[in-house]
Amino acid sequence: MALIQNPKPTTILISSASYCSSPATSLTLPYPLRTNTNPRLFSTIPSSIHNLQHPLPFFSRRLFLPAVSGIWDALTGGNNAREAIVAIRRGMVLFRQGDVLGSLAEFDKAIELDPRQKAYLWQRGLSLYYLDRFEEGAEQFRLDVAQNPNDTEESIWCFLCEAQLYGVDEARKRFLEVGRDPRPVMRDAYNMFKDRGDPEKLVTAFSNGPENEYFYASLYAGLYHESQNKPDAAKFHIVAACRSPYGQRSDDYMAALSKVHCLCRNWSFN
């Protein structure tokens, strides 16, 4: 399998002002910290992608910012729309740093600048989840699925929000059905959440496969346990996702999310 070749990790200090970290916490990021001053809309694609010698067998759209439709809106919508894209970029950087509250402020600013962006802002939904604003998070993910009816992960995250609001059984009744995901691990994860599956079987099924599949199996197994109010099992699997090679080296936004999850729960993943 061809892996993303990432630069030397960057270590930053997260101050106590960050929502999820107190006291100050050192977080090693699997990518160089980018500045926010470059206005080029397409500079958000990780530089490591351009250096791949072979195509990735598993390609998360969370490697990119924002959705293609959102970029098109920005290109055709004038200065406010372009500024909205820059705000989304800043929000994603802040989220990767562990400043979830700051990331949400940037995502909300993007919506103020260009209301069309709200329908594509899955990043905002993730921030809302970690701020315990589950009703707004569920609304965001439902908007996202309405725009992209084949988005497996948004369906799962909507369930995760609504499980906190209404309980697992009611959330499952509200479960958003989507099209067939091309990724085997996400198809199995989707069916696990939808049909009350076994997260341990999910991890076992992908434990000897590509590193990215093991990461996603571990991450969503942990999130499933969290929805069932089983924090010890959730911690075991999400920490494993953080420590996996893909979790440590990938530019994938979800790899950063696994670390943010641990920071928000005060779990050590080093």
From TrEMBL:
Signal peptide: none
Keyword Disulfide bond in annotation: no
Residue spans of the TPR repeats: 84-117
SUPFAM superfamilies membership: TPR-like
Keyword terms, alphabetized: TPR repeat
Name of the protein in question: Uncharacterized protein
Originating species: Manihot esculenta
